[in-house]
Amino acid sequence: MRTNFRKLLLCAAALAVGAMLTSSAYAQTAAELYKTKCASCHGADGKGDTAIGKKLGVKAFSDPEIAKNPDQVWSDITKTGKGKMPAYAGKLTDDQIKDLVKFMRSLAKSK
Which of 35, 59, 89, 93 could form a disulfide with 63 if both were Cys (CB 3.0 to 4.6 A apart)? Predict the structure, then answer.
């Protein structure tokens, strides 16, 4: 019985460590995805203050008109595209898009 309890504890510990590593890896992946897929127009800081962003009229993520939208709207726009923005459905997974939205929200908060 003690052996089973030890195995259970080891499994729980392994799962906890795995979850911590996974969430950290997702944050890094979201930042990398943003850098490769979004930053050229939206800027490294999410302000849209790039040559392409200015030309396209990209608004900052912190702009009240943009920030008021729920995450689902941000996800939908990322999936289907909007205006000149390409669609990422089929190119990114739903989890990647969800993590990307979280990352973009963090940029909006850092103004």
Answer: 59
Q: How buried is 62 (Cβ within 10 angstroms: 0-12 exposed, 13-18 middle, 19+ buried)?
A: middle
Tell me the backbone φ, ψ of residue 89, rounded to 5 degrees. Answer: -65, 130
Residue 88: which H helix or E strand, with range?
none
Prediction pTM value: 0.73
Element spanning 76, H or E: helix 71-80
Domains and CATH numbers, the chain: 29-110 (1.10.760.10)
HEC per residue, 38-64: CHHHHCCCCCCCCHHHHHHCCCCCCCH
Exposure of 87 in the CB half-sphere (CA atoms within 13 A) = 5
